[in-house]
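Trying the structure run again after the queue cleared.
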Amino acid sequence: MSVPTGPKIITSRFDVADGHTYTGYVRTGGYQSLRKAVGTMTPQQVHDEVKAAEIQGRGGAGFPAGNKWGLMPQGVWPRYLVVNGDESEPGTYKDRLLMERDPHQLIEGCLIASYAAGLSQCFLYIRGEMALAQERIATALNEAYAAGYIGKNILGSKFSLDIVLHWGAGAYVVGEETALIESLEGNRGMPRLKPPYFPAANGLYGQPTIVNNVETLANLPWLLNNGAAAYTAIGTATSPGTRMVAVSGHVNRPGVFEIINGITTFRDLLYGEEFCQGIRNGNDLKAFVPGGGSAPWFTPDQLDLPFEASQVGPAGSMLGSGAIMVMDSTTDIPRAALTLTRFYAHESCGKCTPCREGGTWLERILSRVVDGKGTDADLEQIFE
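Done. Tokens:
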């Protein structure tokens, strides 16, 4: 079957052997966007370009990056950029591969965002279990500092930036931006009470803070090189550009793929020769999770839905973190549900009663069902 394909915006170096090194990055056009931004554009022009491209946040919420930057109050200093690299949603591993295979692209994205937002301090928060990603980012930061792309008066301009690498300790809830900020400050990673609702107004150390996902920032170098018009020409009006999806489970070719946003369907992804090449062993598809472990499941009759939030949402689920978990006809569905439920019961931060109490009860009830001791009353209790 033929599936729609487009330019590789963020995975173009995945097949380049030394794409993760400074030499390989520069040889393939790296840091040219930063030179263009700092040398020929004002911070406001860069911000306007990102806003015009309508790059939606790739961490799960889908909030446009340019709009998020615009929420920062004027004239309040210092201000910070925090990069959310705590990829902890079950089934999700796209950001980890971005950090492992193209760390300089992320760093250049951080530099462009910091220049546009007028800030001089960036924090890269990476999940504790991602050892190789941490090593690659640390090496890339040292290389970028040595080359003069990070530090004082970057490329002879008045723009200066320091980037700090911070390792997390592996908590699911730290993927939530206010919990991540608490962890960065040295506190237990727990979500903050709201209001205030946006870290852009009151974030790290009580100062204006932009929190962006790894993949979101990795889009910026291509965008600055090619322009917002070229970016929005890909995908749909409400979902422009490309996005990365991580597919795991019962497919012939699991992995991370860059697809056209808003157009590519789940059928294209799971059965296309360019992507997953069908279900393993010729089995039938039973169910799939379309957006990470916390997303409601889809069934085969929903395969033709595109990667478009406006269609996936009304259908009863969400695109979330871009993780698709595939279950074929051999899957024990109650046992699979128990596996995910046990994870969320364990990882609940406990601040909200429905999650703290409900998650634990769901695990207990599903355990009973899986052990063959379930009743109709248990099903009623689950729905309640």
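The longest strand covers residues 242-249. Worth checking whether this holds up in the mutant runs.
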